[in-house]
């Protein structure tokens, strides 16, 4: 893909972005990245990410971002293409302070009648799936 995309991996993803949980921020993945910058909404440089692996394709975001949530930042990656030209790629990082609503909730333990099967009941304990 030209230009390569900046990928955010890990972290706790929500419908609105990433949950700003200290120690669980996403990492930035980009092959051949030379520099990863964090910019604020006015496009001003506020910090840089640091390499997190020996291969150099993962970068750790600064932990203070979790304390500043909710917020939106631009992640800018600087790299050189095979011809040696300096290039930049960007993505937006959205951190949310908390996530209240959710779309999935397990059934509590108990007996349930399942209409789509032969008449009868199934029993489950401790949030396990109903057989």
Keywords, separated by commas or semicolons:
41% strand; four-stranded antiparallel beta sheet; mainly beta; elongated; six-stranded mixed beta sheet; Immunoglobulin-like; 3% helix; single chain; 131 residues; 1 helix
What does this structure look like?
β9 and β10 form a beta hairpin. The model has no long low-confidence stretch (mean pLDDT 80). With 131 residues, the protein is mostly beta strands. Helices cover 3% and strands 41% of the residues. The chain contains 1 helix and 12 strands, in the order ββββββββαββββ. It has a domain at 7-95: Sandwich (Immunoglobulin-like).
**Shape field:** elongated
Mean pLDDT value: 80
Q: How would you write the strand order of the largest sheet?
A: 2-3-10-9-5-6
Structural class: mainly beta
Helix % is under 10%
Cα Rg: 21 Å
Keywords: Plasmid
